[in-house]
């Protein structure tokens, strides 16, 4: 098995007294990609928040490159290489696209030039203010801005939520290039299970805060009974 870049070891976490994740173990190798699936409320976002340290753990450990980061503050985890793309996007409305990118920049493979090559639409809109972008463009900018921090792992929380199919296509093409050609490791939380499975190597399905099923994404994509059982999906 390849060495884990990001690892959850029997993690329990939640909000105050409420336990949401219980005994979750998973492992993301360097250059790996993992789809995190499950019905509403099973704890997918909580898992990403736990990885970032916004939600604390009461048992188990979170490790990044074999270092225990369970008690490390979120901003330090970001510095260590975890990149968080929140569902709310959190674009600065009164900064231009290019300024939004600039505030996040840290040295590495990703800079404004390589980002514009990945997202030509952002180059076209580079002078637009954050509040002069469509929802899909904001989502691209949110992803691109996190990429500007040159993370070793990107945590994506429902990036395709509410977007038109044409924009989803553009975004998936960029994510594919980023992961398959450039080797950025990702955990992708997604309601669009088929899209997520096509973009990733491995998949984990959560149910009631526990790992209910894990499989290579390509296998799960063909496994109608499992998709129906845990996600209520019927294959077309
Ligand atoms: N800030 C919070 N305080 C208390 N409970 C919370 C908080 N955020 C989420 N929860 C609860 O934790 C559980 C898991 O929520 P979470 O958002 O992680 O699920 P999810 O799988 O991401 O769901 P969705 O697909 O709807 O986004 C839910 O029961 C939710 O009500």
TrEMBL record:
Annotated transmembrane regions: none
Limits of the ABC transporter domain: 6-233
Xref: Pfam families: ABC_tran
Keyword Lipid biosynthesis on entry: no
CDD domains tied to this protein: ABC_TM1139_LivF_branched
GO process terms (BP): L-amino acid transport
InterPro entries reported for this sequence: AAA+_ATPase, ABC_transporter-like_ATP-bd, ABC_transporter-like_CS, BCAA_Transport_ATP-bd_LivF, P-loop_NTPase
GO molecular function: ATP binding; ATP hydrolysis activity; branched-chain amino acid transmembrane transporter activity
Recorded superkingdom: Bacteria
SUPFAM superfamilies: P-loop containing nucleoside triphosphate hydrolases
Key words of the record: Amino-acid transport, ATP-binding, Nucleotide-binding, Transport
SMART domains on file: AAA
The family this protein is said to belong to: Belongs to the ABC transporter superfamily.
Name recorded for this polypeptide: ABC transporter ATP-binding protein
Organism, as annotated: Neoaquamicrobium microcysteis
């Amino acid at each position: 098995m390849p060495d884990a870049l990001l690892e959850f070891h029997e993690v329990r976490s939640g909000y105050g007294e409420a336990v949401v994740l219980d005994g979750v173990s998973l492992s993301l190798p360097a250059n790996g990609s993992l789809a995190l699936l499950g019905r509403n409320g099973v704890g997918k976002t909580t898992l990403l928040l736990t990885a970032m340290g916004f939600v604390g753990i009461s048992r188990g450990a979170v490790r990044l490159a074999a270092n225990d980061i369970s008690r490390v503050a979120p901003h330090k985890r970001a510095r260590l290489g975890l990149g968080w793309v929140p569902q709310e996007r959190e674009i600065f409305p009164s900064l231009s696209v290019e300024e939004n990118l600039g505030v996040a920049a840290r040295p590495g493979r990703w800079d404004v030039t390589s980002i514009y090559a990945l997202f030509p639409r952002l180059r076209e809109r580079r002078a637009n203010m954050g509040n002069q972008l469509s929802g899909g463009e904001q989502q691209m900018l949110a992803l691109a801005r996190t990429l500007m921090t040159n993370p070793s792992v990107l945590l994506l929380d429902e990036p395709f939520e509410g977007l038109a199919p044409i924009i989803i296509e553009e975004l998936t093409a960029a994510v594919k290039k980023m992961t398959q050609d450039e080797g950025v490791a990702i955990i992708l939380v997604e309601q669009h299970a088929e899209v997520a499975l096509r973009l990733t190597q491995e998949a984990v399905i959560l149910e009631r805060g526990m790992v209910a099923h894990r499989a290579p994404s390509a296998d799960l994509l063909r496994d109608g009974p499992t998709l129906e059982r845990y996600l209520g999906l019927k294959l077309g």
